[in-house]
Design goal:
Helix content is 30%, strand content 23%. It has 724 residues and is an alpha/beta fold. It folds into six domains: 73 residues, GIY-YIG endonuclease (3-Layer(aba) Sandwich); 62 residues, Arc Repressor Mutant, subunit A (Orthogonal Bundle), CATH 1.10.10; 177 residues, P-loop containing nucleotide triphosphate hydrolases (Rossmann fold); 184 residues, 3-Layer(aba) Sandwich (Rossmann fold); 55 residues, no CATH class; 87 residues, Alpha-Beta Plaits (2-Layer Sandwich), CATH 3.30.70.600. The strands form seven sheets. The chain has a seven-stranded parallel sheet with strand order 10-11-9-12-13-8-14, with helices on both faces. A six-stranded parallel sheet has the order 15-25-24-16-23-22, with helices on both faces. Strands 2-1-4-3-5 form a five-stranded antiparallel sheet. Helix 1 packs across helix 2. The termini are far apart. The relative contact order is 0.08. The structure holds adenosine-5'-diphosphate and zinc ion. The site of zinc ion has 8 residues, from loops. The site of adenosine-5'-diphosphate has 15 residues, from helix 8.
Length: 724
């Protein structure tokens, strides 16, 4: 056909909608193609979209500008395009913002080719400088581009170039399109126990039938959920298809890789934010070409362009880390199910403490529930005891009550490991001046600065602002006057060291396990019994399997219950049940001590008696009565500005334009609990609606006609998890 081809493109410029372009003769640009298009004097990235599905401009045909280039990557397939469209629609996000999450490696879009990387040669330098010494030390075993090596080594590229000239570094040409070793589905095949085998068979048959089916794999901690869903992974591999496994945190990846390798003979491809650019490029392209068979990743892996996806697994599916709270505010658990739906493949949500929403879907028959009721190999669930802090108050400035101290002493004597859980990083949550009472506050956020003794700083956990602890009070000038109030994990670790001088104590938080390598090192140390007591935040509550760990102590079970948010009780239950699940996973029985001031609270009682069903049933009823999710639909509108008055006025303007819809309740605007965040003043509105209400449509119609000053940001959070 001789006439011109018109294509509608999502252009990667947030302010614009879709634009039409002309495809020049000889260029192939079907829907999903990644293209470069002109925009004014600039060239920008675009994504060719299905014309019928996107309103575009009415630009006359003869004025259309030509697509400049179709990039050398396979067009995004229809199921991924539908997913992008669905997310934009459901989460009220610009299409370009969602699409950008799929095009998550700019290097990958430019095609394959070779990259020059460098590595140490092992030569000894003739002239040693401190910087060279540092580089030789830190670059051991590394191979990367100059820029990446400079970052790893903490030296300038100039230093490295000098080392290259001296023969201390050598170049290596690598093909960015080299495939990954293929996992072997039959490398080792475990004998599955009865219930495991039944659950596996159902998942395998859905994989083989290539049929959309969400599964809720609901098994107590240590029941072998991983082992069981690995059979479904094997089935997908047998039929030559790809698998995506989502984990809530990178820190869990290290343990997962080892297990995967033991089962399939090679590690899977990883995808997370700390990958080097060259690794991202290779992974993205191999996912698109089908050479990456199994990808394990953080929530952003959901938008990778799989060539032939056969299965999605979301492990620890109840985790709130799957909810993204900035940019496009999506819940990866829900998006995973939608991707499975569009791809026509099964989705496995694995958890020992499923989200109430997931259980509700199972009850409604939308998800198929597979239950593993007991621990594998006869291991017993740990014995749980409550320590009533109102009766057994630790001394001032101490946080471990007598029974916990005794249990720790006992384990140390027997050479067994213990884990203390407190969901608070740093040394103390609040620091003040003993003399004048001055409290250290973040200048950018309504939050206290948290003292970190290990790294000697006062830090804001919201914006990252940090200062060294000052020698004198900034208010009254008194020297050496700082007092720590309340405990953080570092302070608990100090208390343990004082009580048990011989104990080897490890603090485990996102500060200490910042990279997969650090996590792997921790796992190796714990498995090698080089650690006696682990003191950690929620990071250590899940995934880890340490057979010698027989005691878990929960320092403050009441902490999470304060905030009064919708999921406070559920979250407390999940966290404590998960951390309790770390105890007694091997041959020796485990014990859990829960310190609380409210031993009669429903959550604590349910944990102590191990009656999960009763707890969930009561929670479900409470939510149903309150019309809260999953029985009602909630959404939040967050209005912010650097100027307090501007934020308040904007929030009032939005509030003033509130729609009057039956079954829709709109609360606020009110100052957000975190009323200042990263220098922006914040107001919130909450929309609580009947399940049948079309919340997105209502909000869209409400906000569309409002004009906001340029300094005001209005964010919509559908199904919010955070109420600060
Ligand atoms: P979960 O994920 O449910 O907490 P895991 O999959 O970590 O449980 O299993 C707990 C432990 O039991 C692991 O060490 C795992 O390798 C082992 N295990 C579970 N099922 C089997 C099986 N069928 N054969 C051999 N070992 C198993
Ligand atoms: Zn801050």
């Amino acid at each position: 056909m001789g006439y011109m081809t018109r294509v509608r493109c999502i252009v990667f410029n947030a302010a614009l909608g879709a634009l039409d372009y002309r495809v020049p003769e000889g260029m192939d640009a079907p829907p999903g193609s990644v293209v470069v298009v002109p925009l004014g004097p600039r060239q920008i990235l675009g994504l060719v979209w299905d014309e019928g599905e996107l309103p575009g401009d009415q630009y006359p045909e003869h004025k259309l500008r030509a697509v400049l280039e179709a990039l050398p990557v396979p067009p995004l397939a229809a199921p991924l395009r539908r997913l992008i469209g669905w997310c934009a629609d459901y989460y009220l996000a610009p299409l370009a913002a969602v699409a950008r999450m799929a095009l998550s490696s700019s290097a990958a879009l430019k095609g394959g080719g070779t990259v020059t990387e460098y590595r140490l040669t092992g030569e000894e330098p003739a002239r040693m400088t401190p910087q060279r010494l540092q580089a030789l030390d830190l670059l051991h075993g590394e191979q990367a581009t100059m820029r990446e090596l400079a970052e790893i080594a903490g030296v300038s590229e100039g230093v490295l170039r000098g080392m290259l000239g001296q023969g201390l570094l050598e170049p290596v040409l690598v093909d960015s399109d080299r495939p990954y070793p293929a996992p072997d589905p039959r490398f080792t095949q475990p004998d599955l126990a009865g219930e495991q085998a039944e659950a596996a068979a159902e998942m395998v048959s859905a994989v083989e039938a290539r049929r959309f089916q969400p599964f809720l794999l609901d098994g107590v901690t240590g029941s072998g959920k991983t082992e069981t869903y690995f059979e479904a992974v094997a089935a997908a591999l047998e039929s030559g298809r790809q698998v995506l496994v989502l984990l809530p945190e990178i820190a869990l990846t290290a343990a997962f890789l080892g297990r995967f390798e033991a089962r399939f003979g090679t590690v899977p491809v990883t995808w997370h934010s700390s990958l080097k650019a060259s690794e991202r490029r290779r992974a993205w392209r191999q996912v698109a070409f089908g050479g990456a068979k199994v990808v394990v990743g953080a929530r952003s892996a959901l938008f990778l362009p799989f060539a032939d996806l056969g299965l999605i697994v979301v492990d620890e599916a109840h985790e709130i880390a799957f909810k993204q709270d900035d940019g496009v505010r999506y819940n990866a658990r829900d998006v995973a199910v939608m991707r499975g739906h569009f791809e026509g493949v099964p989705v496995v949500l694995a958890s020992a403490t499923p989200a109430l929403e997931s259980l509700q879907m199972a009850d409604a028959g939308r998800y198929r529930r597979l239950v593993l009721p007991s621990r594998f190999g006869g291991a017993q669930l740990p014995r749980i005891e409550v320590v009533n802090l109102t009766e057994m108050q630790p001394a001032r400035g101490r946080w471990l009550a007598q029974p916990l101290v005794e249990a720790l002493t006992d384990r140390l004597g027997k050479g067994e490991q213990s884990l203390l859980f407190l969901n608070r990083r740093g040394y103390a949550p609040l620091t003040l001046c003993r003399h004048c009472g001055f409290r250290f506050k973040c200048p950018n956020c309504s939050a206290w600065l948290v003292e970190h003794r290990l790294s000697q700083r006062l830090a804001c956990h919201h914006c990252g602002h940090e200062v060294p602890p000052p020698p004198v009070c900034p208010e009254c000038g008194e020297p050496d006057c700082l007092v720590a109030c309340g405990p953080g994990v570092e302070r608990i670790a100090d208390e343990v060291r004082e009580l048990l001088p011989g104990a080897r104590v490890a603090v485990v938080t996102s500060d200490t396990l910042a990279s997969p390598a650090a996590a792997a090192e921790f796992v190796a140390q714990a498995e090698g019994k080089a650690i006696d007591v682990i003191v950690g935040t929620q990071l250590v509550t899940k995934g880890f399997h340490f057979p010698e760990l027989t005691l878990v102590g929960v320092i403050d079970a009441d902490m999470g219950l304060d905030g009064g948010d919708l999921r406070a009780a559920e979250r407390t239950y999940q966290q404590i049940a998960q951390v309790a699940g770390r105890a007694g996973r091997g041959a020796k029985p485990g014990e859990v001590l829960i310190q609380t001031r409210h031993p009669k609270a429903a959550v604590i009682a349910a944990l102590a008696s191990g009656d999960r069903d009763a707890f969930y049933a009561a929670e479900t009823e409470a939510r149903r009565e309150a019309g809260a999710p999953p029985f009602g639909r909630w959404a939040a509108i967050i209005v912010s500005s650097e100027d307090e008055a501007e934020a308040r006025d904007a929030a009032r303007a939005i509030g003033g334009a509130r729609p009057d819809e039956p079954g829709v309740l709109i609360l606020g605007p009110a100052p957000a609990p975190l009323s200042l965040l990263r220098g922006r003043h914040r107001y919130r509105l909450l929309i609580a609606a009947r399940r049948s209400a079309e919340v997105q449509k209502i909000i869209r119609a409400w906000l569309a006609p409002l004009r906001m000053p340029p300094g005001v940001r209005v964010a919509v959070d559908i199904d919010p998890y955070s109420f600060v």
